[in-house]
Structure formats: C-alpha cells, structure tokens
DNA sequence: CTTTAGCACTCTGTAGCTAAGAGTGCTAAA
DNA sequence: TTTAGCACTCTTAGCTACAGAGTGCTAAAG
C-alpha cells in the first residue's frame, strides 16, 4: 500500500496530475506555484517535488524537465485526491439520447450505440462486451421446421433474450417426433444457466434420447454447436481513432500494436472479463494491467445488468494520462442508463 | 485514352513500376539498366524516362530523384504491361482452407474469414460487403409466436438465406388470424426481390389487410422495420493494420483519416457498391476513386454470387503502389472459391 | 527548523551549416 | 541514335551553437 502523504504533498501531487492530464507536458515547480498558488515559492515546491519523486509518485523524463506522475502517482490520485466531475447538461443529454431510440429493439444495436457514445464523450476508445448469454438461464427451446431440410432453433433465456439459428436436418422428422424431442429438452434444461449446459450434459442427453429416437444425431450436433457459439461473445468498439489524438501515440509502432489488439476480439474479451468486477467500477493503471500491450494504458471498466443479473462489461481504454474523474463519472452514468434501458 | 507507347518505352515503364512497387524508392536510370539490362546505357534510359515524364506516365518527386509512376503510369501498366502472377501453393492452400471449414454454416462467418485471409495474403486491407438481401427474391415468410407478447418473423429468400427478427406484438393474435395474415403476405410478396418491397407496396398491403383485420398495425410496422434493416448491410474488414506497414502511411494524419473511414460502415458500403462491377474485377487507381480520402489509394473490387446472382462485393484497399498483379490474381481465386462455397 | 533567493548546471529542441550521395539534363563526340 | 562526361540540383544525415526550461544546491533570511 502507498504511504499516506501530508496535505501539502497531496496538494502538489494533485496539481501535477491535474496539470499533466490537461497539457501532456511535464509540470515544473514554477507552473505549480503559478497555477495553484499556495503562498509558497517555487524552491519549496521543488523540494517537495523531489521528495515526491523519491517516494515514487512522480518521475522525471530527464534531469532538467518537469515532473510527470508515475503509475503510483495516478493510483494515489484516483484513490485519494480525485474530485468527482460534474457532467455538463450536454453530455448528460448525449448519453441519454444515445439510448432512448425507440427503434433499437435489438440489443446489439443498443450496445453498438453505447460504444460510440462512450468513446465520443470520453475522447478515448471504448470497448463493450456484448451480452453474455452463458450467464442467463435457459428458459425455453423451440424448433420451427422451415422446409424439408432445414429448421430454426429458437432459444429463449430468462433475461428475455431470444437467440436463433438455422440448422440443416439430414433426416426428416415428423412433427410429432420433433415435438417429443423439444419437450424432453425443455424439461431437462429449464432453469440451467447456459454456462451449465456443458458438453458432458449434452452427451448425456444425447444418449438418453437415442434410446427413444435414433434419427436425431444430426440435429443434436447442431444444437450443441449453436450453444457453443453463443459462448463466444462479440466485443463492440467505439472511437478506435481517438487514440491517435493522444500525443503519447504519435509513434506509428505503438499505434500498430494498439490497432492489432483491437482486431483480436477474443483477446479483448478476456481482458475485459479479467479486469471487470460486478459490483463496481475498476480502474487498472499501466502495469496493473495483465496484458503487456496495454501496460502504458489505463483501462476503466464497469458492468451492466439485466434484471440484476450481470451480463456484460464496458470499458474505456486510453493512455495512463487520462481524465480519470470524467471517465469514471461518464462510466457511472452510462451503466445506470444502460441498466434501466435493458431491464425495461 | 492513353497514347500507345513503343516497345522500348513500355519496357522501361514496366521496369520502373515493378521496381517501385517492390522498393517504394524512386527508380533512377542506373537502376533500370542494372536490373533489366537491355543493352542500353543509362543516358539513353534517361532520355526515354524524360519522354515518359512528358507523356504523363512518370513523375519526379524532386529534380534530382529517380522517377515514380503517376496514376496514368499505373493505369497503363495494369491495362497493358502486367504479367499474371503465379500464386504459390502455400497461398493457394491458405485461400482454400479459409473457406473449407466444415462448421461455417453461417454466411457471416464465411465472409469474415474471407476478409481475414484476403488481407493477409495481399498484405493490404480488405473490405467485404456482406450478402445483399435486397438482390435476393422473396420466397417465404413465417411468423412463429413465442409467447403472449412476442413473435419471430422468419424471412426466406430464393438464394437460401434465412433472416429472422423478434417482434413485439402489442395485440394478441389468434393462431388463425396470424395464419391468415401470413399466407396473404406470402401470396403477395412471392418472387419479388427484397429491393422491390418498397414502402409504398407495404403501405398498399397494409391498407388491404386492414379491411379484413384491424389488429395488425403493430405487427406491420415491425415487419416493415425488419425489412428496412436488411437493407443496411455489414461490411467486414480485415487487416486494417496492414496499411501501417506501408511507408506511404507513416504520417499519423493520413492514418487517422484512413481509420476514420474504416469506422464508417455506410460509407464503405457506398464506395464498394459504386466501384464494383458484377462481371469483372475493377481496379480504381488514385483519383479514379470518387471518394476523396482514398484518392491516394487503389481499390480493387470483385463480386461474389450465389447461384449466379450477385449478392456482394469484396475489395482490397492499399496505396497506389500496390502489387497489382498479385492482388488481382488473389482476388480472382477468392471469388472463385467463394462462389463455389456459397452455391453449394 | 523552514523557507527562499540566487546561481550554476543539465538536458531538449531548433536552426543553420556542411558534406556526401544520388540522379538528372545537357553537350559534344562516337 | 547512342553514349560518355560533367555541372548542377536536391535530399539526408550529422554536427554545432544556442535559447529555454527546469533542476539541485548553497547560503541567507524568517
């Protein structure tokens, strides 16, 4: 744990962090006295800043430059010094209106829109995990025959999602046979979360059913597959170009690494999943992140729910020099609105 | 139309283009004699190159640099000088295997995979338009009641696509009423392309139906909406980071403009649609492109079909200095395989 | 003991300069 | 028509000089 600082040091640390976030330039002692006058000369501030550097809260890019916050400095700032941000009415309006579209009945549209807004309000890149069905509970399964060869599997969860998938049916089934299979499956699966529908459970059911009805192999493989597919979740990105506006990403090589990351959906998914916590907003600064390529970045995550069941994560990714206060506030609002919208 | 060149000029132009494509450095007269020895001194080549510049096929970045091809130069090369590329067995293998996955039943997966492969084999960015349903013909409509409040609309086209969408139904319909509506719609819409299902036609049907059955308004709005939605098509991107490897994109500002473009799906769609031609591969070099932000790029497009019906476009986007021969050959193969795969 | 003024020192970034290298265009001869 | 030779142009890399910003230290003042 970081040692506590006396009030004067805290004031100075705050001044440095706030200023550096705003200007992206190292902050010198002069600047601190000028902007946050506290009746002290620059020499005194200099001494204090030297102390703060010794304690690990500040670093110097080179001997004769100002100071910039270290990872520890940001951490202390976020934990102890940050003042909550007031969102402007305009921001508030933008966030709300992004979700109020009457027509957005498909959840993917809502999520996609949210990603856009989250990135534009924060000026960072946003990542939102699509709904995780595996955390929803199985509610109902239907199979609708389309023609001789195809059927439509419809899966309904307790969180109100409906996923469907077309399957080929090699063998034809009579209406009655189909009905029999479907009701058997419904009975067995009801109330389980999608997570709990494991391959072994499916195999068991398959063995069971085969005794009664031997025609089903193909249909079963396909059900299994369709469930498996639901477990891989889309991650929606917004404002990927925003990182290019940050001075810390003027190096093409860094840009490449970031964009490369953005193309790897499963990886993004894992990062979001690892970072997030159901109950609160999580701030991961620099090397606090597991994944190497974002250890110069800060990732802030929150989760959204449907009927009190957590089903997805939203994240904002940017350089460690990020307006923490603002992003966290925006994230809070976004989560609130999203929860309301999705639970109605 | 560009004037015809004598053989010697053609040889030299080809040499310059080929070399510049490979090295990204302006090509001087010495280099041409050294690499493509044709029994002439560099002075002669110099004279010829000066002619080629006068004719508009070559340009000089500055007085004392070598020459690079102009847009016209590339055009002449593509139209007259290019030799077809032999794909290596490895490439061939990669392309084929990207599509042979047994499990990819969903067309979006196939398209997505194709985008990935197309970009990695060409080392450029690829864009593939998802299937355009509006060019398919209406085949069958079904509505499956899910519970009291919701139903599932299933739309089947002659190209074998099945699109479906969940709708809310404010008023409850009896099974019989629903059946009546559905069969009426099927009768009216059968054989029309989705394109032809205009708002006015829908309104007409609506009036018609209202006479018989007044409960349907809500259901109708939603059918309309779901059709409208099918008209906006996804564009799948692959290898967006590849442009960063090109030396012409070392400027952060150019990168930003490109990436910005990539985020605007509807725009990409329009560009692909405008550029492509059903019957052949189209090469748009530099300012031949309509859209301003890609006038330093070349876009090469091809189309893919299902049962001889064109339903989508694939594109490769990169700097004008692009390996035309290779990209075009790869595009041809890709189109072939894709057509085969989708029509089976 | 704390604060501050003063000053020497360090490091960066920019501007200007030079020299090397690449390539051209022109001229005159083959 | 081709080519050798040469003066000329432009870019790039490296070097130096210098202004600007900021520090750390010392010694004096509170």
Summary, kept brief:
The structure is a homodimer of 344-residue chains. With 344 residues, the first copy, chain A, is of the alpha+beta class. Helix content of chain A is 49%, strand content 18%.
Description:
2 copies of one chain form a homodimer. Chain A has 344 residues and is an alpha+beta fold. The first copy, chain A, folds into 3 domains: 7-81, Winged helix-like DNA-binding domain superfamily/Winged helix DNA-binding domain (Arc Repressor Mutant, subunit A); 89-132 and 233-342, GAF domain (Beta-Lactamase, 2-Layer Sandwich), CATH 3.30.450; 134-231, Heat-inducible transcription repressor hrca homolog, domain 3 (Enolase-like, domain 1). In chain A, 49% of the residues lie in helices and 18% in strands. Chain A contains 13 helices and 10 strands. In chain A, the strands form 3 sheets. Chain A has a 5-stranded antiparallel sheet with strand order 7-3-10-9-8, with helices on both faces. The first copy, chain A, starts with 6 loop residues before the first helix and ends with a helix. The model of chain A has no long low-confidence stretch (mean pLDDT 85). Chain A binds chain B through residues 103, 105-106, 142, 144, 146-147, 150, 152, 154, 156, 162, 164-166, 168, 225, 240-241, 244-245, 250, 252, 255-256, 259-260, 263, and chain B through 103, 105-106, 140, 142, 144, 146-147, 150, 152, 154, 156, 162, 164-168, 225, 240-241, 244-245, 250, 252, 255-256, 259-260, 263.
